[in-house]
Amino acid sequence: MAYQRFSLFPDSPSFKELFSARSMRYRWRNGDPVITVAIMVICVAVWIVETLLKIAWPAGYSSFVGTGVFMPALATHRPWTFITSMFLHQPASLWHILFNMLTLWCVGPVLE
Hints:
This protein is mainly α and 112 residues long. It is built from 6 helices and no strands.
């Protein structure tokens, strides 16, 4: 008997298959929300980094957030904050990131 790895969802694709270049091209051509999913992945990854920095290195967390946060008075001197600020979320609240990602999942495909 061959060894098979346990899976809660046996017919679902693996992580590697889901994010392969071939799969992304296929989903892009079919009109699936590829950009929305990419933004969601980036937001969650940045939120995890923020959470870990806040726990392990508070000074690094302050520097990380201070570099990416949008402040209108400094926007001309730090133009990257127009983009980076949308990926920053409050690390103390799981509900904040969950509801932001839920909203992005509902609205993003319509905009895309």
